[in-house]
Amino acid sequence: MAPPGKEEVEIKESVLFGKYRLERVLGNGGTATVYLATHLGLQEVRAIKRISKASEGYRQFRKEGLILKSIRHPGIPIVYDLEEDEDYGYLIEEYLEGENLFEMVKEQGPLSTARTVSIGIQICHLVHHLHSAKTNPILYLDLQPKNLLLCHDTVKLVDFGLAAFPGEEGGAAGTPGFAAPEQYAGELPDERTDIYGIGAVLYFLCEGESPRQDGTSAGLRRIRQRRLRRIIRKCLERRREKRYPSASQLETDLKRVCALPAGITGGKQGGEPFPIVVAFAGNRPGVGTTHLAVGLTAYLRDQGFLALYAEQNRSGAVRELLRNSRKSLDRFGSAAVFGLSVRPFLGENVRLDERSWQVIVKDLGVWSREADAKGKQDWDVLVEVRGGKPWNSPLGVCPSPGVVVWNFSLKSGAGRREFVCAPYFPDPFFPAGRARRFYARLSGRCGIERGGVSGRGLEGARQLVRRAGR
Prior knowledge:
By secondary structure, the chain is α/β, with parallel strands linked by helices. 31% of the residues lie in helices and 21% in strands.
């Protein structure tokens, strides 16, 4: 490993205003530099944006700080302070852990309709909040994938450098490929300018590229879902009077595109809240337990669920995955790989807050007698994975599994409802075709319904557990 450079050492030794220790550079853009810093008194991380007072953008920088200071929303970073010294201005704000939508789509490709709609609804809610601010409505004017972060499945809007109030000049024209035609023409922007930006972001999530500026009909024809295609086309109209008049109306239409998880309804026995926990265990090594568990989590991700793959075995597979993809754990103990939230095995005594997830898929690895003896069944449904080859043992080892999966198998399960046959599919991070149909059946057996997780569906899964235990 190469020794740290002089600039890196100088940054590590820098303390601003007697309380912010600079750790490293997070990014450079235009005339500004963003640092990761630690508040020495509170021992909390902050993001610090620095810009030269001699810069042409310094006035807009101060305006950005004042705008952010006036906004309170979970999807907008908190501004703690606005500082300055002889040469620079500093904006001290909340440090956000997550990846931007540009990085996410470039890593995993275009998103499913459900994920696109889910993210789009959150963006609309954010933009509506800005447009409906009581004292001074705010126009964002730079909606593009790099300014939208996905933090633990929550969309966050960053970089208000071009934000303006209605009736003001919007400054720069925005990001090429995502700016509205009136921004290029130097016309005064309004709320419909941000509607165009939302449509351009939705197009990018579906297609992996920005919309064409010389008429978008050719690209839009590639978007399979007709209702979503019509919505994006309306957002991207060159004449703003043909676009949606407000973000709230756009959000209403997006909610009609497909059935998204409607939230968590019902509860577990004893009044415990969800998430629903589905555990996978193999009856022997090499039967594809991890492959199937990752695949279910990816399927639920594509359906718009907040799903987590949790490694509950000592294989070290997730840590190896994180090393290969150069990802690190966030404060929730998880990381996003190909848009999939994964958590490595952190030890049997580590307990993290899991209430923000709708579904947790636990990979127990191979079921062991030790695990059976402990009797700790911290799951709602147990899926036992058995190999379907002639040399694999057909006998189960798990106590009362809710569902038995024959993997890579031609077996029919003798007509028993708790048996499901898994098809072969090479990439568990992106299940498609037969694999998607398989997971639709499996998730239904586990009490996870298309419109959300319901107590009634969970009770059906419990009946399968009781039937399998007979």
